[in-house]
Amino acid sequence: MALLRRDSLVTGQLLRLVLLHTAWEVGSGQVRYSLPEESKHGTFVGRLAQDLGLEVSELVSRMFRMVSKGRGDYFEVNLQSGVLFVNSPVDREEVCGQSPLCAIDLEVIVDKPMRIFHVEVEIQDINDNAPVFSVNEDNFIIAESRLPDSSFPLEGASDADIGTNSLLTYKLSPSEHFILDVQRKNDQSKSLVLVLKKALDREETPEHRLLLTATDGGKPELTGSVQLVITVLDANDNAPAFNQSVYEVSLYENAANGTLVIKLNATDLDEGINKDVFYSFNNRMSIKIKDIFSLDINTGEIRVKGNMDFETQNIYEIQVEAIDKGHAPLVGHSKVLVEVVRAVDADSGYNAWLRYEVQEARAAGPFRVGVYSGEISTTRALEESDGPSQRLVILAKDHGEPALSATATVSLSLVESPQAVKWDSRQRVGSEGPLVDLNVSLVIAICSVSGLFVLVIVVYVALRCHTGPEVMCGPGKATVLCSSEVGSWSYSQRQSRNLCVGEVTAKNDLMVFSPNVPHFAENGEKKIESEFTPNENGMSRVDREEVCGQSPLCAIDLEVIVDKPLRIFHVEVEIQDINDNAPVFPVNEQNLSIAESLTLPGSRFPLEGAFDADIGTNSLLTYKLSPSEHFTLDVTTNDDQIKSAELELKKSLDREETPVYRLLLTATDGGKPELTGTVQLMITVLDVNDNAPVFNQSVYKVQMLEGSANGTLVIKLNATDLDEGIYKDITYAFSSLVPPHIKDTFKICEYSGEIRVKGKMDFEYINLYEIQVSAKDKGNPPLAGHCKVVVEVLDINDNAPELTITSHSLPVPEDAPPGTVVALISVSDRDSGDNGKVTCSIPPDLPFQLVSTFKNYHSLVLAEAVDRERVSEYKILVTARDEGAPSLSASSSILVPIADVNDNAPAFPQPVYTVFVKENNRPGAHLLSVSASDPDLRENAFVSYSVVERSVGEQQPVSSYISVHSESGHIYGLQPFDYEELQVLQFQVSARDAGFPSLCGNVTVQLFVLDENDNAPAVSAPGSGRGSPGPELVPLSAGAGHVVGKVRAVDADSGYNAWLRYEVQEARAAGPFRVGVYSGEISTTRALEESDGPSQRLVILVKDHGEPALSATATVSLSLVESPQAVKWDSRRRVGSEGPLVDMNVSLMIAICSVSGLFVLVIVVYVGLRCHPGPEVMCGPGKATVVCSSEVGSWSYSQRQSRNLCVGEGTAKNDLMVFSPNFSDSAENGEHEKLQVAQGLIVTLRDVSSSASSSI
Question: What GO CC annotations are associated with the protein (predicted)?
Fold first, then answer.
């Protein structure tokens, strides 16, 4: 729709322009036309020939031509009618930019006589450019703590049109948080400011999206828009919150160190570091609890750290805090109540005696478990109704108090064949033996200990009832009890003392017990130190806080003992508290950091309270804060009557006004007289980025001479920021609204604010620059200040002549006659006087010359004939020099090509291309490139490539293997090459030019496929020739070098990639077996021993020699036996009651023996017939195993050798082969060797080279 409206507007203006025909002046030879921009091709501009007073019929004969000064070919003249029309649409903004006047100057030249006419076409603006923002999306980061009425500058839109078409109005999409403020400056430009009218909340809306629309003043109106994405920056305004305010946990008193008590979890609605939470104990929590429990600050796990004693304390109250990592951290609180449960230690003795039972036993279940042995057995014969599998849950319980238990799940599968059951039973019985023995040992141990204990008791009672001659008393404990460890006292509250009894040695049969005065022994366990002295003057001061701590009731229990008769008296001394401890803060000075404007009034900051060692009224604390207009103290009391003090902000802080506050917090207890403690509160106000940088002036004016050198200082700007730290650091930059030509002329140092010359300033081009500069701090988000720098350029004589060259009739044909016009050259100098007078020249010895046609106009014409085969082009340097002092000059080059005919065919630089390609190449991979050259020009030299089609292999076209890019000559592989199928591919590539007629040339390409190691070795079933996949039987009597089997493998690759190597993958240092490196034969390295075990399992690794090497493995099982009879006996014993399996094995052995005997008989008969005496006997090389010489089977050539056997008449024959996997291939030094081929068959071999014979 916009395009249709624009076309209608252009048509209407054209109708008016046709009526407005501007006359031309004869004396000046100048004509002026007007035309709307974007007029289509063929639009009528004016009757140029008629307006210039030229006859239309003479335009061709007078060589009518028209040129424009560097403006392109926007216009053309119809030589038949003399009408000037539009050749291509003119974009006013592209031609003239923001200049209010836009005109294209044309120059018309005619000969006979030579005349030059000046034509000016004014281009009028239409509203064809919509407002454009510099970006499609503008991102802002605004802290949620920013106050309403905060403003944020926006970048406006730009409109390439001029006048009314470029006047812009702005509109912002509706928002409850933001409004748009448009301000008009003195220069009528508009500045946009986004104003915050309602506070933001990131937790409610983390991102706001607004649409800013700009509308111009044209008809019809055009609009542009930009998306404003406002990301709300998180402020630390949410404290961490626990899942519960109170957690209750039960824990055994004997819990080991490191036992997990509870894992706390606190969450924070903020994000980033404000969301990261760490945990800590409350500072007011007692040291005793901190010694027993530890808290992981990162995970929130509370674990046992020290010893818990139910008799000493059965409940612990742990105050935990969760603190975030914000700039001003916030704290969440929770309480963990740990209830200590009395525990029974069941590690040994009766507590370790186990009992087993089926947990979910059925009434008629087929299985049961031994009560003390744990053995699972059948209760009856199994039936098919019992199902294919059973699942038993076995419960194991100790005899402790309370009893502890554990469960184990046993899965049983019912099978018909007893073979698997027998094998599994053997394994299980071996592993369960120690368990049964352990239980029996435990029962025996318990009975022995119990009997010994009874015996000790009897002896002890007898000794105690025996009256001694004297009794003496010495230092002892407050309570005397029997030393038998009975009762409920824990070991941590008992100790023994030596008492003097009679005239015998000291005894340990008395104990002292005093439960009220704890002390710590050297090993960390509690003991009782309540020694008494009979001297009545042995009194000392008692510190209640040292003796009883925070316990509300403090009493020391004494027990007095007298003899004759023995009596015990109980004495209790209650210690009453006095106010002898003043409140104490954990530190002398508490430091707080509070952000200034981000922290809103009403924010609270927890303070560390004081501690009073007294109890009751003496420990009741009241807090008082020194007067402050910004802070107040809030003291709260929880359910446990524990007071917590919090510092509350009642007025916003301003760091620039007061950076530090010092307050005095006083704690007073409730005793008489009152005691006080104080702590200094030092509150540091943290800076936030609430002050934008400010320049000294809003507008700076500077004058500069044109032609100033690069790096010349224009001005040094200075902006200041009242904030501190990184918020005070300022960087300077050009505004995004600064046009590119200003950025190309000037540069600004982002740190110093210095503006310097970067490009060339030209008074004749631009004499005034307005530079918008912004100063931004490094806050997050940053704040910015703005100013304007006006640079006025002063003129000097610094303009060299300007050359404008318009080419004509290029290229020049070889047969062009002398006098042909090649180009029209115009010169100008923007200076005046002698500085503006210009002369032109070209180098001598060129077949061209300059002809002056008018003032400052020259024609470059052909002076003599040219030959393209000798010189294909000419580079003509045209120099224009003014008459100033010093003289300035300008030069320009004209490249004059000579036109050619298509008389040269494409040629390749070499007759044959050779390329080597690895197989399995990636389809579409680049193989090589061919290139042909043609000395012709343009289309005559444009070469296209193609493949000369032919068949390859089984009638496959060569194009199915490769393709050639028609323009670049790159040859690509269409499919992976397989060396095993194709080794060489030869084809031809044709290069053809685009001339008329076209010429072509061919080249041959030879592609050699290289083998890759892409086939891993293939391993066949290993064995010694018995045809059985089972384990190989190796007699223990076998000596070193005995071949027990062979691994056969083949590789589909060729050459080095198919050369195989064998090795034992996990070979032991003194292993009895080895494998042939290249033969694959498995042989013994030494005589076998019983220590080698009944069986061996070898993993044979077969690797080729490729890069990278590929491998395969074969597992060979070897069974070491003493004799066939032992093998048979072992088989019978292994089978046991498996009658059918034994019968089957016996049958197999009978069949194997029968076949072996028949095979031996056939061999004996065959050898006898072959070795029947004849008239002549010849001996020669032979093989150890007699088979047909046809090479069948899986033996590799490396495992065969040919021998001549002794035969009767005739020449030596090679129609027999010998194969022996168990012995070495040949004898060394010509010695005889005997190979046992078959029972009763001896073959004599003779090495022909050494004339030595051997018998087989």
Answer: plasma membrane
Query: In angstroms, rounded to a whole number, what is the distance separating the alpha carbons of residues 684 and 1123?
Result: 96
| Domains (range + CATH), the chain | 28-124 (2.60.40.60), 137-233 (2.60.40.60), 241-341 (2.60.40.60), 589-686 (2.60.40.60), 694-794 (2.60.40.60), 805-842+859-899 (2.60.40.60), 912-1010 (2.60.40.60), 1014-1122 (2.60.40.60)
Structure tokens that stand for 416 in this block = 């018909």
- Kindly give the residue spans of alpha helices, DSSP state H, lying in 1033-1191: 1124-1135, 1139-1170
Question: Number of C-alpha atoms within 13 angstroms, CB side, residue 227?
Answer: 7
Per-residue pLDDT tens over the stretch 338-382: 998 875 544 455 666 778 888 776 667 788 888 877 888 888 888
Beta strand segments in 699-767, E: 699-705, 713-716, 719-720, 730-734, 746-748, 754-757
pLDDT tens, residue by residue, 156-192: 888 888 888 888 999 999 999 999 998 876 656 677 8
Closest listed residue to residue 494, CA positions, set 519, 469, 513, 467: 513
Structure-token match 């343009």, residue found? 938
- DSSP string for residues in 828-865: E-SS-GGGG-EEEE--SSSSEEEEEEETTEEEEEE-S-
728: left (phi over 0), alpha (psi -120 to 50) or beta: alpha
Distance CA 349, CA 360 (A): 28
The residues, ordered by sequence, that sit 6+ positions from 1185 with a Cβ below 8 Å of its Cβ are 1217, 1218, 1219, 1220, 1237
Cβ contacts of 284 within 8 Å, gap of 6 or more: 319, 608, 609, 611, 642
Classify the phi-psi angles of 1121: left when phi > 0, otherwise alpha if psi is within -120 to 50, otherwise beta. Answer: beta
Strand partners, 573: 556
In this prediction, residue 430 has a pLDDT band, given cuts at 50, 70 and 90, of: very low
Q: How many CB atoms lie within 10 A of CB 134?
A: 13
Q: Which amino acid is at 1020?
A: S
Decide: helix, strand or coil at residue 1167: helix
**Cis before residue 997, ω within 30 degrees of 0?**
yes
The dihedral through the CA atoms of 1007, 1011, 1014, 1017 has a sign that is positive
- Are 934 and 943 in contact, with CB atoms under 8 Å apart? yes
**Residues constituting the chain:** 1256
User: Residue 861, Cβ neighbours under 10 Å: how many?
Assistant: 15
